[in-house]
Amino acid sequence: MNRIKGIPIAADGMLSEAVLSHGNALPLLHEIEILLNDLATTGTSASLDLRSLPMLPADYEKLREVLGQGEVSATVDALGPTWVRETAIHGVWWVTHRNAEGDVTAEFIEVTCMPEILRTHPADARAAVETLRSRLLQSVPETEGDDHDG
Amino acid sequence: MTDNMTLGERLARQGISRRTFLKFCASMASLMAMPPSMAAEMAEKLAGIRRLSVIWLSFQECTGCTESITRSHSPTLEGLLFDAISLDYHHTLQAASGTAAEHARAQAMQDNAGKYLLIVDGSIPTGEGGVYSTIAGISNHDMLVDSAKGAMAIVSVGTCAAFGGIPKANPNPTGAVAVSDIIKDKPIINVPGCPPIATVMTGVIAHVLTLGTIPDLDELGRPKVFFGDSIHDRCYRRPFYDQGKFAKSFDDEGARNGWCLYELGCKGPTTYNACATTKWNGGVSFPIESGHGCLGCSEPDFWDKGSFYRPLSTGEWGSGEILATGAAAGAAIGIGAALAARKRQDSITGGK
User: Fold this and answer.
1) In angstroms, what separates the C-alpha of A145 from chain B's closest C-alpha?
2) Of residues B94 and A94, more confidently modeled
3) Considering only the top CATH level, what class is B231-349?
4) Domains of chain A and CATH, by start
5) Fewer CB near the terminus (10 Å): N or C of chain B?
């Protein structure tokens, strides 16, 4: 135990230079600007995969600081939560996919009028027709028709 | 009967929506370094596939690769992927043993001839006729040759299967070789690492499933999407290398400041893997982020290239070429520091 205590590691809460670096945030913000211009002028949507870059906490902080928090916030409950938030820059969405344990599995900046994950897929809509009809049948009292006839 | 269902039908029965599917594919596209826009297309293709038969052979290995894939911190995603495959043989995971297990392998090979995926972890001993490792009385060599005949492709999981790994380390007492040293007529995807990252393994399987193709491979047979960049290229400490800021020991001010670990033997500049971006333990960190240099475990013969704690500039990793690459990246300061480090290491080790 004495030898373990002798290991000269200082956990003094000092923030290292590496942690404070945000060298990837600014190029990313400029790319977002270009994509947003495309959306505004041609209606073209695009996504940026934040996990494809060696992002550090300071990079995320810089992105959040510049983009801010907007009016829309939604949670999709599918394989764990997905947080969809529009930033204060309209058309720029921050989408974070998490698994059931809360680990981030993917994270995107989506430049679009509506993130794809919020749309209902046509296959689900078709299945939903049957689901709703089934529920309606179950919720209609068996004697309802007799009452009207009478 | 359920084996004839598409994955989309199978998951719909479980109440899983297409939105969930899209999320899974978005995560997989991110994992495979594919454009995010591919997620929707992947989701459509994945929904339409039928289960793929997989035969997993374990030879001279430590079970670390299987541990890695089954201890993944994102079981929901991996679980969803494993709904898309039928793992017909894996002697560590399957309940059957002995004759019943071998019958399952033979049956899967017969039923899915030309269409199953063969996954191998562990190297293959060839010394003394292959007697150093046998399963059900069959040498690893013969089982590999037999199982490979009807496979659509082979995935060599882990550095042992891909390059021979630790069993092949000098003096290689069992005559261990890699899968690619024996099988020459099938596509082989090498997924090295000791162990490989779980999500890289599942990512390769997802690629084969969704795109129906073998991913682009580098000269060592590794998928470029995961092994296209060196650890050094994608390391968050790279700016310190370029600035000539190096930790000189594991407890000095440089180490505490998160400076580059090159002088402490980090093999990041010569190692190609996804650790710096995909990371480990559910994306928590990777060895360099935890303060230790890269060991280079996804490279051939990493175990025989000298100390993990001597810098690359000492020459054991073919570093002349690497140093030239470093210089091209504007790292003259780094080279100077490397030479200084070599002198310091020599003084510590007596030049050994």
Assistant:
1) 33
2) A94
3) few secondary structures
4) 14-117 (3.30.1370.140)
5) N
Min CA distance, B186 vs chain A (Å)? 31
Nearest to A79 among B76, B237, B258 (CB): B76
Query: Angle at CA A12, nearest 5°, toward A9 and A18?
Result: 85
Residues of B in contact with A53 (CB under 8 A): 277
Written as six digits, the tokens of B108 are 């899967």
Among B21, B28, B30, B285, which would you mutate to test the A interface (most chain A Cβ atoms within 10 Å of its Cβ)?
Answer: B30
Question: Taking the CB of residue A103, how many other CB atoms lie within 10 A of it?
Answer: 18
pLDDT at B340: 46
Facing A99 at nearest CB: one of B74, B277, B278: B74
Query: Is the ipTM of this structure higher than 0.95?
Result: no
- Chain B positions touching A101 (Cβ under 8 A) are 73-76, 282
Task: Considering chain B, tell me which residue range(s) the CATH 4.10.480.10 domain(s) occupy.
Answer: 231-349
- What residue ranges of chain B have pLDDT lower than 70? 1-3, 71-83, 315-352
Contact B235, B266 (CB under 8 A): no
- Interhelix angle A25-42/A57-67, rounded to 10 degrees, is 40
Q: Count interface pairs A-B at CB distance under 8 A.
A: 118
Place of tokens 């293709």: B45
- Who has greater pLDDT, A85 or B7? A85
Residue showing tokens 């199982």: B147
Place domain B51-226 in its CATH homologous superfamily: NADH:ubiquinone oxidoreductase-like, 20kDa subunit (3.40.50.700)
Chain A contacts of B257, Cβ < 8 Å?
16-18
